[in-house]
Structure formats: C-alpha cells, structure tokens
Amino acid sequence: MISKFGSFLIIILFFGSHLMVLAQSSNKTDSSEAQAEKSVTKHSVKIESKLINYTATAGTLVLKNEKDEPIALFGFIAYVKDLETDVTKRPITFAYNGGPGWSSMWLHMGALGPRIVVTYDPGLTPPAPYKTVDNELSILDVTDLVMIDPVGTGLSRPIGKATAKDFWGVDQDIKSISQFIKQYTTANERWNSPKFLLGESYGTTRSAGVANYLYENMGMEVNGMILISSVLDLHTLNYRDDLSFELILPTYAAVAWYHHKIPNTATGLDSFLDEVRKFAGGDYATGLQKGDQLSVTEIDHIIDKLSVYTGISKDYWSKANLRVSPEQFRTELLRNEHELIGRVDARYEGIDPDLLSESHREDPYMDQISPAYTSSFLNYFYTELKVNKNLSYKTNANDAEGFKWDWGRTKNGNNSGRFIVNTGEDLATLMTKNPNVKVLVLNGYYDLATPFFATEYTFDHLGLEKKLKKNITMKYFEAGHMMYVNPASFVQFKKSISDFILGK
Fold this sequence. Notes:
14 strands; Rossmann fold; alpha/beta
C-alpha cells in the first residue's frame, strides 16, 4: 500500500553481495563497481479458477542518463506470464507506492502480487507467524506487472556521479521513474505492448507527471493510469486555508457514519454523502469564505449541520471556529471511549494515550498492519524469490541520511513548497494532447489522508474539454486508503482494475 500520505508505504529489491556495504551505509557507489543483478524464478498461481504460470525477476537495472552514464541501480520485481507468443496483446503495468520516499511493498503484498499477507480487517492482526497465501485476486491474469522501488528505497541507490538529491524531488522523481520505464521497456522488448501506470497516494501525484513526461520527452504513450487514493493537487491537503476544510467534510461524515456517531438515515451512505457534499460546497463553503462577516444565525446554522454530519459536538466546532483538522477529528471523535481512529483508514481504532491531545503521531491502522506486511514481504522476498540474504533492503528513504524532498517544479518557475505542487496540470496537458489516455480513480470513503471529495474537486478543475471527461472513471469503496485490505472491497478493487485494463 501504501501510500499513506505524509507517512506512507513499503516494498523490496536488491544488488550483488559486493554492494552490501552500500545498502547498509552509503547513498551511492562507484559506477565501475555497480552491476545489475537478477534472481529469476518460476511460479504458478490460480487466479479466479485459472492457472497462471509466470516468471518472477527480482533485481536491479543500471539506470543511465541522457549521456549514457550510469546514475543508479534501480530495483524492481517483475512478474511476466509464461508462453505469451504475442506481447503486443499482453498489457504491462508499472506500479509503485508513494510517500514520497516509500517502496512499493504495500501494493505488492496487499493487492497486486501473486502472494499476499493475510490481515484481520478492521482489527488487530496477531503477531508472527503471519499467513501468506496465493493471491486469487492478483491482476496477473490480465497484465504483466513491474513493481518499482524509487531511489533510496528497496535496493535502489545512486551510483557514479549521481547523488540521492538528484532523485529526491517532484521533477527528479518523475524523470528517474520515466527513465526506468523506458529502459525496462527497451530491454524487455515491450514497446508495442499496452502500458499502464498504477500508483497509490503520492504515487498518483507521480503517475500524472510520469505519463506526461513519457509522452513529451520519450515518445511513449500509456494506455491508461490507475490512481489509488489520489492526490494530484496538494493544495487540497493544506489545512491552512478554507478549501481543504470544505473538501474533507464528507470524509468526516462517512467516518462518523461508520462509527455510529450519527443517525444512519434510511437513504443509505451514498445518498447521505451526496447531501453532505452539497452542504460542504454550498452553505459551509460560503460561510468559511465570509469569515468574520458571518451572522450569529448563520454560524448557528452551520454549526448545527457540522455537528449532525460529523458526530463532533457543537461546542467543539464553535471553539474550532468551524474548522476542524483531520488530526483533531481523529482524536476527538472517540475521545470519550479513550480511542483514537486511524488516519490512513479511519475504521481502525487504537488506545488514545493522551486524552488531552489534539493530534497524535500514532496511526492505529499503520501500527496494526505494518509488522505483518513487513515480515511477510521480507520472508517472501528472500525465500520464495531467492534474493541474496546478505543484501539489506530499505522499506523507505525517510531514515536515510540527508533525506529531504524537493517540492520545487521547473514548470512552475522553481517555486518550492509542498502545497504548490499540482500534477493535475500535467494530466490535463497529457489528456489534451493525447485524447486516447484513460484514467481510473479509486477512492476510499474512510480515508483521512486523501479525501475523496478533494479528489473530485481536483478532477472537476482540470479544465478539460467536456468530451474528455468520459475518459475518467471514478470508483468508491467502503474502506480506507488501502481499500484492498477489506475483503469485500478487494473483490471490487480487482474487478475495477481488470475491467479498466481490458477496456470493458
């Protein structure tokens, strides 16, 4: 998965044993010593009653720049269906998580790969031994799959004259992922295969930029993008101005509904959320815009609605000046029960260690599933994929020396700052130039990290010609950021992606 936005995901890859010291202590290695290494194994998995024989390749690719100079050992795990005589009819999907600075373990071990970990949703997964099973809902029946680890994660490392900061930034990341996709495509003779990008959380921010970069700079056209828990315009996650408070309100309502903090009306969740959407974009948005010009009557009306829709008391909304942040909400909703709800998936509950706090670093969701994902993936990586056990794998780059993300963008005049980034502009540019590209957007109702109403707002403000709107499909799940951890949602998740890739 993941992609928890702000503290997101994990995955895996590798090098040769002579690079072990690099993986443990250095951000780069001499390009004369760097060699790509691969472990190739054969497997089979039954997906929806059909046996799929496939080859798994776990390893690294020597990434080169425009001058043909080695700049990175780029890690990946590829799954390719055997005995496909015509690869022009076999799609290939490039997938990654987000962060930024996280590997792709979550998507790999939770949804896409041929083996997945069993967790207890939505509750506490017991400690080891964890259970890893064949993934009967993997997408390998409809597409080959390449899981990518950005530089600083997995076994991906800068080499030669390159340094980590050459990859740690919005534009730098878009370019390096695009370079990897081009080189992998060339090396494996997949230029004429249908191609898809699949990203989660910041991985969706990345996908919009990568798809446009590939088209404009490398002559590569992707057939489609699958955006899971999407955030293209980071300004919608600002919570320093009124827009983001407006856009997260329907998520608060969905979460309050789930935790039985509001009356469950006979109309159902979808109809209820439509009602909240109208209020959020109507009276609430207008009220926030008016600021100190709001009358007492208007304030009382808005507070009444906010309390009814969210299960948070009128007094709390009043003291918050009509603006409650996600951290305040997840701390306040179950405070009387001494519980804290998850940020990435608000269905999850944990003990609140500080009943006076308005925010917490802890996320019950991540706390409850991370050990199972990490342990199961590393065991799978080293035992089933036969990766050298002496190689150290990095689940994320956040602990790396000097890790700092460059939020500046060249096309935005080198403006810096996370909340200026908007790769929706990249997507709009691409779709205007290439009207063939399709986009599937998957949203979790209980996701406080990337709210679904904010995603809708972003897509409604791309400035696209109306005839291009038909290329965008929105799907919704009664789950969180990683909707596939919920068994019922996982079935819908797989069908949505498969149908999209097959053009149904």
